[in-house]
């Protein structure tokens, strides 16, 4: 059984930052991801542009360059690959962590690869850096399991000349609705609230609002999806039920961390803040020897932590682990 000082679950920017900081301190570590390196970023829309400057995405003191003021998804992917290469990080892609047994100083991590190989590893400490893009929020309506329902919008081209419904009114919904409209889809937007969210980026909000005002995108506010059927969708609106012709549904209503996995491993949410219970100085969870890094520290408050500040968790955790390993020799 392979043995490491630390197993890191999740190879996104925060997981990579943790691996780098541990490696700098001579602490052996391995990263596992159920998908590819920076899997969440890979699943972002193809044309995504970050709402931030390159410097704020940097990890491991490696400069990030960008053709424009703000980098795009492709530049981000290239940058994080380069960082992983530069530091020679041990990343096991397409190897899902199924469970973590044992305790502080002697954990056993069980994994499964895409080839259905089951492996076990030993580690003194665990870092969970699994992000929040893993599990989409569901509408919980009949027909949501139809293949035409999409929770991750990638690009608009395949939906040209089709009737599409976009559910939601935040950034991802507004961007999807606009790109689909520009590409020649017939777009309807539905949202429970009164209008496009105020959190939508300032250059996108007026654009989608003008499309709606001009009737180019049909919008139903104070409304919700009641049922999804093969050829149409039933909406519940202030004027009663409406049935609209439909080929594809984009459920752009957000994502959440894998709270079930965390609960199974002894990490629970604080009732008052909805955040996982951690030591604020070390980010160690209730389960001794298991640390949380990145956006999962925010629980359901996912707008509080992004790559820009999650990347600093690596240093905090690496320092805590270094101190712990130094003062408390691992149980052999």
Keyword list:
332 residues; alpha/beta; FAD/NAD(P)-binding domain; 2 domains; seven-stranded mixed beta sheet; five-stranded parallel beta sheet; 8 helices; 17 strands
Structural commentary:
The chain is 23% helix and 26% strand. The protein is an alpha/beta fold. Strands 1, 2, 3, 4, 5, 6 and 17 form a 7-stranded mixed sheet that branches. Strands 8-15-9-10-11 form a 5-stranded parallel sheet, with helices on one face. Strands 12-13-14 form a 3-stranded antiparallel sheet, with no helix packed on it. A hairpin with a 3-residue loop joins strand 12 (224-228) and strand 13 (232-237). The longest helix has 15 residues, at 73-87. The chain is elongated. The two termini are 13 Å apart.
Write the CATH fold name of the largest domain: FAD/NAD(P)-binding domain
Give the helix tally.
Answer: 8
The gross shape turns out to be elongated
Q: Could you list the spans in which at least 5 consecutive residues all have pLDDT below 50?
A: none
Distance between the termini: 13 Å
Q: From the alpha-carbon coordinates, what is the Rg to the nearest angstrom?
A: 22 Å
The helix/strand class is: alpha/beta
The largest sheet, given as strand count, sense and whether it forms a barrel, is: 7 strands, mixed
Count the beta strands: 17
The CATH architecture of the largest domain would be: 3-Layer(bba) Sandwich
Task: Tell me the domain tally.
Answer: 2
Question: For this structure, what is the CATH homologous superfamily of the largest domain?
Answer: FAD/NAD(P)-binding domain
- Helix fraction? 10-25%
Instruction: Give the strand content.
Output: 25-35%
């Amino acid at each position: 059984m392979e043995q490491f000082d630390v197993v890191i679950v999740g190879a996104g920017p925060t997981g990579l930052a943790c691996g780098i900081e541990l490696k700098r301190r001579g602490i052996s570590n391995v990263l596992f991801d159920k998908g590819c390196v920076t899997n969440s970023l890979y699943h972002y829309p193809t044309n995504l542009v970050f709402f931030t400057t390159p410097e704020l995405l940097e990890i491991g003191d490696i400069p990030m360059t960008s053709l424009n003021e703000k980098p795009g998804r492709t530049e981000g992917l290239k940058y994080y690959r380069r960082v992983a290469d530069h530091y020679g990080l041990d990343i096991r892609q397409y190897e899902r962590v199924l469970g973590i047994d044992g305790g502080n100083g002697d954990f056993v991590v069980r994994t499964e690869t895409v080839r259905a190989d089951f492996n076990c590893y030993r580690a003194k400490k665990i870092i969970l850096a699994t992000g929040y893009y893993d599990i989409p929020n569901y509408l919980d309506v009949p027909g949501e399991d139809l293949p035409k329902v999409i929770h991750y919008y990638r690009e608009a081209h395949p939906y040209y000349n089709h009737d599409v419904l976009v559910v939601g009114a935040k950034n991802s919904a507004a961007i999807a609705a606009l790109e689909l409209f520009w590409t020649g889809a017939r777009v309807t937007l539905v949202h429970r609230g009164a209008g496009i969210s105020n959190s939508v980026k300032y250059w996108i909000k007026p654009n989608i609002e003008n499309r709606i005002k001009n009737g180019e995108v049909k919008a139903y506010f104070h409304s919700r999806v009641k049922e999804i059927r093969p050829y149409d969708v039933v909406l519940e609106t202030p004027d009663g039920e409406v049935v609209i012709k439909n080929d594809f549904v984009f459920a752009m209503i957000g994502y959440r961390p894998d709270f079930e996995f965390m609960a199974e491993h002894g990490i629970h949410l604080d009732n008052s803040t909805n955040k996982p219970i951690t030591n604020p100085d070390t980010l160690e969870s209730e389960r001794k020897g298991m640390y949380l890094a990145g956006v999962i520290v925010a629980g359901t408050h996912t707008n509080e932590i992004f790559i820009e500040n999650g990347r600093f968790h690596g240093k905090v955790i690496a320092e805590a682990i270094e101190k712990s390993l130094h003062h408390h020799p691992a149980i052999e």
